[in-house]
Specification:
It contains 17 helices and no strands. It is mainly alpha-helical.
């Protein structure tokens, strides 16, 4: 009944004369963000209809919901904020200004996001907001004058945080560069000596296949990369493309677990130490919830991860069996 009434109202508006009350012609109210799932859905849909002017609102919502509480688990979000800033250079300063005031904790996120923006003058942009972040002078000096790195200079084998941040940047921009770096990480998926690198490479493989199975533009990029990548990357990339085109994503996971178990069986100390799995961050989110274009759903058995550290259920899904 409610649906019929709504359709009737829409039809009435479409057929009404121009002098009908302008109240009916108003745009629908903007979505409010009261749950993490709503933010994830908005992030995933962003490239279809970019709304960069809503970034300050989204940033504050993320902070209010505690998404930045664990920075190691917030790579997707930080990369996304940086991507929106970087893809809107003409309005970047204005967007950042509207993010203030914010807590000193959230200022850490902003500093990183500006550094990750990819803007050639990101240091100059960051310098403009130094006086508004007196509690973060040590971190500011690190990025302005020290060894604080932009996202483009962070090795992808440093950990899942970098992988997550690259996905976040892609969600914000649709740019090819972060995907090229993630594709390059596929070389790690055949590493036989380091379980951490093997797992990061496997995560890259899994996220690429899952997201490419739902997005033709991404699949097209992967096909083009086949002619540009070295042999060590082309083989796993071919497997990613095949899994995406046939929707056989589970095969990627099974092969990854088999490789990790094989390395574990060799008795390496690193291969027996899975405490670092808690550092995996939001990669499960990147390949599951955000990639599904429906925040809050369970995709392929992976629980949606919203804010904070990755859940034990998600760790059990991808971590090797004891």
């Amino acid at each position: 009944m409610r649906i019929s009434t709504t359709l009737a109202l829409l039809a009435a508006i479409a057929l009404s004369p121009a002098w009908l009350s302008p109240a009916l012609a108003k745009d629908p109210p903007e979505q409010e963000f009261k749950k993490s799932e709503q933010i994830l859905k908005w992030i995933n849909d962003y490239r279809k209809d970019p709304e960069p002017n809503r970034l300050p609102e989204i940033f504050h919502a993320m902070g209010d919901l505690g998404i930045f509480r664990d920075l190691d688990s917030a790579g997707v979000y930080i990369g996304f904020v940086g991507g929106v800033i970087g893809s809107n250079p003409e309005r970047a300063e204005r967007l950042i200004s509207r993010m203030f005031p914010m807590s000193p904790e959230d200022q850490v996120v902003l500093i990183r996001a500006i550094a990750y923006s990819g803007l050639p003058d990101w240091k100059h942009l960051l310098q403009k907001f130094v006086e508004r972040m007196p509690a973060r002078m040590v971190l500011l000096r690190k990025y302005l004058y020290g060894d604080g790195k932009p996202l483009s200079d962070m090795p992808i084998d440093d950990g899942a945080y970098v992988l997550d941040a690259l996905w976040g940047y892609y969600y914000a921009t649709g740019y090819r560069e972060p995907i090229e770096r993630i594709v390059g990480a596929l070389a790690l998926s055949v590493d036989k000596n380091n379980v951490e690198k093997l797992t990061i490479g496997s995560m890259a493989k899994w996220t690429l296949a899952t997201n490419a199975s739902r997005e033709k533009e991404l699949l097209d990029i992967l096909n083009e990369e086949m002619n540009r990548q070295p042999t060590v990357v082309r083989k796993p990339l071919r497997e990613v493309i095949e899994a995406a085109e046939t929707f056989e994503i589970g095969k990627i996971r099974k092969e990854a677990l088999a490789s990790i178990d094989e390395l574990k069986a060799k008795g390496s100390e690193k291969s027996r130490n899975y405490a670092w799995w808690g550092q995996v961050g939001q990669t499960a989110l990147a390949l599951g919830c955000v990639g599904a274009a429906a925040g809050g759903l369970v995709v392929a058995g992976i629980p949606c991860v919203v804010g904070g550290a990755i859940s034990s259920a998600a760790l059990k899904y991808f971590a090797p069996e004891p």
